Amino acid sequence: xxxxxxxxxxxxQSDRSRGPYQNTFAPAPAPAPPPTPSYPQSTHRxxxxxxxxxxxxxxxxxxxxxxxxxxxxxxxEKSAWSERTRVLRKLSPKRVPRRIQxxxxxxxxxxxxxxxxxxxxxxxxxxxxxxxRWGFDPNNAxxxxxxxxxxxxxxxxxxxxxxxxxxxxxEGTGARKRLVVVGDxxxxxxxxxxxxxxxxxxxxxxxxxxxxxxxxxxxxxVGVVQLARDLGASSVxxxxxxxxxxxxxxHEDSITSSTSSHPNYDIPEDPDDPSHNxxxxxxxKTFSKSEIAWLQECPVILNIGPIPGMxxxxxxxxxxxxxxxLEHISLxxxxxxxxxxxxxxNLKTRLPTPAHDGVCWAKIWNYAQKQRKLEERQTxxxxxxxxRGLGLKxxxxxxxxxxxxxxxxxxxxxxxxxxGGYVRQDTYxxxxxxxxxxxx
Length: 440
Fold this sequence. Notes:
Layout: E1 4-6, E2 12-14, H1 15-18, H2 69-90, H3 98-135, E3 158-160, E4 178-182, H4 189-198, E5 206-210, H5 221-230, E6 234-235, H6 239-257, H7 278-284, H8 289-296, E7 301-307, E8 311-316, H9 336-341, E9 344-346, E10 351-353, E11 359-360, H10 361-370, E12 378-382, E13 391-392, E14 396-398, E15 408-415, E16 424-431
Helix pairs in contact: 6-7
């Protein structure tokens, strides 16, 4: 059966009746019109425009008579939260100028930094400064340092270092000289040799100074003294040299005054009297007469003299005292026992003491120097206080770093500056073996 087509007038016609060319040039049938939708056409109006608040006008909208207690509480909390949100929105940073925001942030940061600095650093320093001012107020205690110093037989209190050994003291050769100051050696000869090699010690240009306590506790006290003598070194008298020399003198006095033809050379140990300490006497007997003589020549205080950048410099074993009024006490008026044993100062009595509890004498010394004129300030190089260890301050240089107990042996090298300028101060140290287990 042949397909039929509708003619323009609405009648149907088969392919055969149209002829061979009628199908080719016949117009295409018109597309069917789209179906008409049953819902309203969109007018492109935003949905938000259809939302109104007409419900607020309804008197029954706020009727809470039908609500239970929980729902009423929820509505109240939501209303309160909305009010708080409105207030916070008014205080929003968006309403605060950016410049004010930056200033507030900077202010908060500065407050935090100031508070942290006060708690970590300045608070302790302020309390310490307050204590020092109170402790050295002339109205709080009697005057200290005005009494006459006691003289001891066979004790050299002060000795002056030859000026040609001071760095930069003379033009030419003085400009290349160095002072090598070594802390408490305590018989550790091997470590001393290593330290001198580390600082490249040259006897032709350098001078070696010890802060006392060359001997005792360590394995080779005699070797340390021999090495110090061979190098032409200087030393001050420490508390251990003092014990040994006093024990030897007491022993010799007992022999002289004894009527027995066979005196007892063993002196019983008395911890309250170092001059009758059997260990000190046993150590004294290991030295030759020339070595004992060299130890006896060691002064309590060795005054180096003025050094550019350091003021007037002195070497002492333990420390130096200041007067009640923070005035200068002459080196000759210093108490020899305190110079060899002091560690702290009792601020209530202003008296130095060998005890560890108290204010370190070095703090008081530095505080006192700042109250003086620049040309009157003095620097002290010392040892003795191994518990505090290395203490390098402006006017005090503590060099006892606990060598004999497994710590370090430390040296302060003072090198002349160029053209008479300020000297350079460098520290060197070497590790030590443990030769002494218990504390002093």
